[in-house]
From TrEMBL:
<dbReference type="Pfam" id="PF00072">
    <property type="entry name" value="Response_reg"/>
</dbReference>
<dbReference type="GO" id="GO:0006355">
    <property type="term" value="P:regulation of DNA-templated transcription"/>
</dbReference>
<dbReference type="InterPro" id="IPR027417">
    <property type="entry name" value="P-loop_NTPase"/>
</dbReference>
<dbReference type="InterPro" id="IPR058031">
    <property type="entry name" value="AAA_lid_NorR"/>
</dbReference>
<keyword id="KW-0597">Phosphoprotein</keyword>
<dbReference type="InterPro" id="IPR002078">
    <property type="entry name" value="Sigma_54_int"/>
</dbReference>
<feature type="domain" description="Sigma-54 factor interaction">
    <location>
        <begin position="143"/>
        <end position="373"/>
    </location>
</feature>
<keyword id="KW-0067">ATP-binding</keyword>
<keyword id="KW-0805">Transcription regulation</keyword>
<dbReference type="InterPro" id="IPR009057">
    <property type="entry name" value="Homeodomain-like_sf"/>
</dbReference>
<dbReference type="InterPro" id="IPR003593">
    <property type="entry name" value="AAA+_ATPase"/>
</dbReference>
<feature type="modified residue" description="4-aspartylphosphate">
    <location>
        <position position="54"/>
    </location>
</feature>
<dbReference type="InterPro" id="IPR025944">
    <property type="entry name" value="Sigma_54_int_dom_CS"/>
</dbReference>
<dbReference type="InterPro" id="IPR025943">
    <property type="entry name" value="Sigma_54_int_dom_ATP-bd_2"/>
</dbReference>
<dbReference type="GO" id="GO:0043565">
    <property type="term" value="F:sequence-specific DNA binding"/>
</dbReference>
<feature type="domain" description="Response regulatory">
    <location>
        <begin position="5"/>
        <end position="119"/>
    </location>
</feature>
<dbReference type="Pfam" id="PF25601">
    <property type="entry name" value="AAA_lid_14"/>
</dbReference>
């Protein structure tokens, strides 16, 4: 890795110094800042590539600093440091435009892993956006799902991909909206053309129009050469407008015009050009609510939501957890160059299956990456999990309700044989869980079935209203 210019921002001098010492050893050029104000001043010079920034600081908070840096057009990638209990805040930071987050206490190996990821991304960005879109287009995500909700989603994705339709992907932060957008592109006739992702929340208001539509030389102070703009870079391909809810109203009008007319005009130009671009947009906001509050244009909302794909949070599709964990373990081990893929001890599996995952797949990915770094002898044990996860998940594990125990059976009159079998299964599984005091692994063992099948069945019963 070429030597990165990194800034460590934390109001605790000891943490600053420890991280700086490690980064220096790893070959980075490091500067330190003890608060947001000092950091902003230094970042304004424009030569810091990555900032490792505490979220909670007196004065300007880490999140506010990300916002200010974005608004000022500073191109630094932020990795936020957060206490595990405040993953929600980390999610807010990602929405403000941070590139990643890391949980305190920061482990050197993990920090290095995240820096490598960011270094790759920045390198590609600097080299060529088209190249980046090709690299990002590699098939490297898990798309085999167990849950009924995700299988239905897969069907929607397969149906809409080959068409020219605009798509709106909605869902909580970290559910995989970007992954779905890429999948749509890869399965479309545009697959060999660029896929250009744009984070609308990270574009400074004063530059957004020229970023999207380009500008001619001399269009405004500082425009010393013409710029093509992301729409033309995506010509023939797909433009992924992430965090579309953050687009200012004035830009929403222009975007609608471009979508409808299929032509764009660069800032300062008199002439329009045709642009053949498919739009996939994503948001974790409630756009309908934003329309009601006058913060999002209704006409653009209708245009975008012709085809909506809602991504459920991970906690509502637990049947996907096992395959996702296996996939992320494998991918993480490959990326870290491990000789073999560590396995999860049964208690670890149980805890991860019981946890609520407020940060969704992104959070799961972080937990797995961390565990891969810590695992000894090819086994991930509870000690390799963030203590907060163990703390949060343990009571859930013990208290998992076995409701609906006897209510499902006997069958109602008129039930088909299949319905009756389902009801019977539901009763047996619920009873086994109750008899095992909520211990699903034990219940699954007694019933002679796998734990993931038990979760899958439970989810199916929930969907059918049997539980
Ligand atoms: N199906 C999947 N297979 C593999 N990795 C996934 C999958 N879904 C999500 N991820 C991983 O989770 C992380 C978050 O995914 P992504 O950025 O697509 O989420 P998002 O919903 O767009 O989040 P945000 O709203 O914060 O931008 C990524 O690192 C991605 O690789």
């Amino acid at each position: 890795m070429k030597s990165l210019d990194v800034m460590v921002i934390d109001d605790e001098p000891v943490i600053c110094q420890m991280l700086a010492a490690h980064l220096l050893k790893a070959g980075c050029n490091v500067v330190q800042a003890g608060n947001g104000e000092e950091a902003f001043e230094r970042l304004s010079k424009g030569d810091i590539e990555v900032a490792i920034c505490d979220i909670k600081m007196p004065g300007i908070s880490g999140i506010e600093l990300v916002r200010q840096a974005r608004a000022a057009g500073i191109d630094t990638s932020f990795i936020m440091m957060t206490a595990f209990a405040s993953v929600d805040t980390a999610i807010e930071a990602m929405q403000a435009g941070a590139a990643d987050y890391i949980v305190k206490p920061v482990r050197n190996e993990e920090l290095q892993h995240r820096l490598l990821k960011i270094n790759d991304m920045r390198g590609l960005r600097a080299e060529n956006r088209v190249l980046r879109s090709l690299v990002q287009g590699r098939r490297e995500d898990q798309f085999e799902f167990n849950s009924a909700a995700m299988r239905e989603l897969g069907r929607l994705v397969d149906k809409v991909s080959p068409t020219a339709s605009t798509v709106l992907v909605t869902g909580e932060s970290g559910t995989g909206k970007g992954v779905v957008a890429r999948r749509i592109h890869q399965q479309s006739p545009r697959a060999n053309a660029p896929f250009i992702p744009v984070n609308c929340g990270a574009l400074p208001d004063n530059l957004i129009e020229s970023e999207l539509f380009g500008h001619v030389k001399g269009a405004f102070t500082g425009a010393d050469k013409a710029r093509k703009g992301l729409f033309l870079e995506a010509d023939g391909g797909t433009l992924f407008l992430d965090e579309i809810g953050e687009l200012p109203l004035m830009m929403q009008v222009k975007l609608l015009h471009v979508i409808e007319e299929k032509s764009i005009r660069a800032v300062g130009s008199e002439q329009s050009r045709r642009a053949d671009v498919r739009i996939v947009a994503a948001t974790n906001r409630d756009l309908a609510q934003m329309v009601a509050e006058g913060r999002f244009r209704e006409d653009l909302y209708f245009r975008l939501s012709v085809f909506q794909i809602p991504l459920p949070p991970l906690r509502e599709r637990r049947a996907d957890l096992m395959p996702l964990m296996a996939f992320l373990l494998q991918r993480g081990a490959e990326r870290m160059g491990l000789a073999r893929v560590p396995s999860l001890e049964p208690e670890v599996e149980e805890l991860l299956l019981a946890y609520q995952w407020p940060g969704n797949v992104r959070e799961l990915e972080h937990v797995i990456d961390r565990a891969l770094i810590l695992a000894d002898r090819g086994q991930v044990s509870c000690a390799d999990l963030p203590p907060q996860i163990v703390k949060d998940a343990t009571p859930l594990l013990a208290a998992q309700p076995a409701e609906g125990v006897d209510g499902a059976w006997p069958a109602s009159p008129g039930d088909s044989l299949r319905d009756q079998v389902r009801r019977f299964e539901c009763t047996l599984i619920s009873r086994a869980i109750r008899d095992a005091d909520g211990d699903r692994r034990l219940a699954a063992q007694k019933l002679g079935m796998g734990l993931s099948s038990l979760y899958r069945k439970q989810e199916e019963f929930e969907t059918l209203g049997l539980l």
